[in-house]
């Protein structure tokens, strides 16, 4: 079975990396998928997501909305 968490994100540079790492460690589920929906952030939130090691092995996915959708 697969557990998928969908997390909204808007200008979360200061908290994003630690929150995602803590969430992944807290859940400790091998079949965990995290989808982060960036709602038109104007900070470096998307860059942080792309730089995470976990993103590179496929456990994080990014949906990047270029304009804020609310």
Provide key terms for this protein.
33% helix, 70 residues, 3 helices, globular, alpha/beta
Number of distinct helices: 3
Low-confidence stretches: none
Shape: globular
The amount of beta strand, in percent, is 25-35%
> Percent helix among the residues?
25-40%
Please give the largest β-sheet.
3 strands, parallel
Measure the end-to-end span: 31 Å
The helix/strand order is EHEHHE
Number of strands: 3
**Nearest-integer average pLDDT:** 82
Describe the structure in brief.
Helices cover about 35% and strands about 30% of the residues.
Describe the structure.
With 70 residues, this protein is α/β, with parallel strands linked by helices. The protein contains three helices and three strands, in the order E-H-E-H-H-E. The chain has helices at residues 16-27, 45-51, 53-56, and strands at 3-9, 32-39, 60-65. Strands 1-2-3 form a three-stranded parallel beta sheet. The chain is globular. The N and C termini lie far apart (31 Å). The mean pLDDT is 82.
In terms of topology, how is this protein built?
Elements: E1 3-9, H1 16-27, E2 32-39, H2 45-51, H3 53-56, E3 60-65
Parallel strand pairs: 1-2, 2-3
């Amino acid at each position: 079975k697969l557990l998928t968490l969908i997390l909204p994100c808007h200008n979360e540079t200061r908290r994003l990396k630690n929150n995602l790492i803590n969430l992944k460690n807290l859940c400790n589920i091998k079949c965990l998928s995290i989808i982060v929906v960036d709602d038109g952030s104007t900070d470096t939130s998307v860059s942080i997501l792309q730089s995470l090691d976990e993103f590179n092995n496929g456990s994080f996915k990014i949906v990047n909305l270029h304009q804020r959708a609310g």
